[in-house]
Amino acid sequence: MGRIWGIAGLGALCAAAVAAFFLFSAQDDVENGAFTAPGIEPLTFQGARQEFWRLTPALLLVVYEAFGETQEDAIYDTLASVTHGEALEYLYLERVGAMAGGGLEEADQTIHEIKLLNTSVAQQDAALKIEASWQVIGTVGHAEHMHVRGNTYSADLTVAPVEGAWRITDFELLDVNRDAAGETFLAPQTN
Asked: How far apart are CA 37 and CA 82, in angstroms?
């Protein structure tokens, strides 16, 4: 009986050693590898921490592109390119929920700029915790006129490398301020 326990114990020890090897290998990959991000060069973990002010709007811009989509599969696929896990689920359900209430039948928004206002970053394990406030400047069309919008958002984001790319893995919206909603002007003529 003692021999069986010894073999089982040795097997458990080997399994733990293999798991530790892969855990440390994955940690080395995160610390030493460079991961893609939309519109900017690949960033290592340390590079992303130093350049989070560039990485954050690059990821958010793709989220807004997804929100401009009108087909559910396009919304999901676009979001999945820059989000993962809980953030993907939350943002997808937010967008599809807005469509259920009579949302966009055709794309009617153009993002001109995402401007970070206040941000801070901290490392948490193999992820970056980013507290961010940003302003989105764009136009939103309704029938025969367009609105310029300058909405301000605040959120806590977790950004981590997933499958070779930087992705938002957690997204907690804290505040939306639409005070600077913009002005109305006539839509340009199209032929």
From this structure: 8
CB proximity list for 96: less than 8 A, separation 6 or greater: 72, 75
* R_g of the chain, CA atoms, integer Å: 22
Q: How far apart are CA 173 and CA 156, in angstroms?
A: 7
In this structure, what is the dihedral angle of CA atoms 31, 33, 37, 39, given to the nearest 10 degrees?
120
pTM for this model (two decimals)? 0.74
- How many whole angstroms separate alpha carbon 141 and alpha carbon 168? 28
Sign of CA pseudo-dihedral 77, 81, 85, 90? negative
| Share above pLDDT 90 across residues of the chain, in percent, rounded to a whole number | 52
Copy the structure tokens of residue 128: 């970056």
- 112 neighbors 121 (Cβ within 8 angstroms): no
Task: Compute the distance between CA of residue 154 and CA of residue 131 in angstroms, rounded to an integer.
Answer: 8
- CA–CA gap between residue 127 and residue 161 (Å, rounded): 7
